[in-house]
Amino acid sequence: MALVLFLAALIWGVGIVMKAPIRMRWTMIGVLYLAVLLAQTVLPDGNPLRAATGGSAAPWLLLGGFVLLAGIYSAGLRWLKARAQPAAMLAGTPPRPASFTEPELERYARHIVLRELGGPGQKRLHNARVLVIGAGGLGSPALLYLAAAGVGTIGVIDDDVVENANLQRQVIHRDGTIGMPKVFSAQQAMLELNPNITVKPYQRRLSDEIAAELFSEFDLVLDGTDNFDTRYLANRAAVAAQIPLISGALSQWEGQISVFDPANGAPCYQCIFPEAPAPGLAPSCAAAGVLGPLPGVIGTMMAVEAVKVLAGAGEPLRGRMMIYDALYAETRQINLSPRADCPVCGGGSAG
User: Fold this and answer.
1) H helix or E strand, kind and range, residue 8
2) Phi-psi category of 102—alpha, beta or left, where left has phi over 0 and alpha has psi -120 to 50?
3) What's the CA gap between 280 and 263, in Å, rounded?
4) Nearest to 130 by CA among 212, 223, 192
5) Which of 265, 350, 282, 300 is nearest to 139 (CA)?
6) Could you tell me the pTM of the whole model?
7) pLDDT digits over 172-220, tens only?
8) Burial environment of residue 152 by CB neighbours within 10 A (0 to 12, 13 to 18, 19 or more)
């Protein structure tokens, strides 16, 4: 038995050195465990390999049962925590300080001297509550710049964990956070950048059951997801809550961004995209590829639009969509109009 435990420790240690994902390390240990069970049940008594691995299947079955129970217990705790999160959302945002401290004034000085922002604009950012859906390619730069800008409360919802393949473009995460839930990796980076803000991590997928309650706690939503089901859900919830939705999207060398805000006369997302494209017409970044810096460009633009909307500065991209072609360094804009028969914000049935 000691030999098998040594091999398991060796696999884990090599995995750490090779920076293999935690899932892969557990998978390899699981393969080793199954091989030992197979040896104990197939090989005859007295076989050297069977003797070297404990001589009986009983202790391994007990060990496996213990690990299984521990896994079920851990999964149950995660499930209970996820179920408790909507109640936590009702608790509201802790009150922000009435005025800036001296270090904060120094930190935001470049904002305060901007005529379009000034002290009142920075105060609005300080009191704002922004939700970012997805801590991936688009969410990473948006979250970092919202934190740096001093947005008082930032929520981030994502059910994924950091993987090695994310680090080519998801700049909020680090090699040392591989295997960590993205929301906690993002929270760590944001608070290291600006400890004066409140970060609310929600480690779960956005769903119909929680969307309305969650959105009601925020003033603005940024959608950085890569699937149409979540985009349509975010749009419906934002329209119902009467808050703006800043949406970005990527494909290979091209990105797009718009501010969907029917409460202020702009179309909603479903006005412009009534139906999801057929399978294969809009492949994911994993399938089609994406230029590493491109999410940084579009995600940063999303943060810029968020600051403008929250501070009341300039002309946000309401009723307009900006398209950026990185391959040819070109940008263009398309004017967008609400659709009267839109089932979400128009004259159709409520979505």
Assistant:
1) helix 2-17
2) alpha
3) 34
4) 223
5) 300
6) 0.71
7) 999 999 999 999 999 999 999 999 999 999 999 999 999 999 999 999 9
8) buried
